[in-house]
Amino acid sequence: MTERSMFRRAIALAGTLGLCGCATSGAALRNMGSAAWVARFDADHDGGLDRAEVTAMAAAMVPGKGVARDALRAGLAAGYWTRDCNRDGRLDPAELATDAPCA
Questions:
Q1: Please, are residues 37 and 20 in contact by the beta-carbon 8 Å criterion?
Q2: Predicted local confidence at residue 51, as pLDDT
Q3: Torsion sign, CA atoms 50, 75, 58, 35
Q4: Dist CA 3 CA 93 (whole Å)
Q5: 67-97 residues labelled b (16+ CB within 10 A) or e (exposed)
Q6: What is the spatial distance between Cα 79 and Cα 46, in angstroms, rounded to a whole number?
Q7: What is the pTM (predicted TM-score) of this model?
Q8: Which residue in 40, 17, 41, 43 sits closest to 30, CA to CA?
């Protein structure tokens, strides 16, 4: 992947994060999208994503090696963790579907 395409992908991922990793509009679509993300990466099937599962999700979204990609994965995961409003160390579909990070 070229540096330019990597940055295009980063922009797309930032847009995805802005949409909670979900569909483009509507609460019902956001909830379905969030449930799909959790279903895909919830390795222990507990209904939420823990740190390892969020890390795996970020790794799947940003493949490859290198400092820039590592930083992009870390930033993406950190952005998702801003949605853990109940601070239980898990991201459930409802938290991923929120419109904004926790205050």
A1: no
A2: 94
A3: positive
A4: 32
A5: eebeebbebbbebbbebbeeeeebbbbbbbb
A6: 22
A7: 0.66
A8: 17
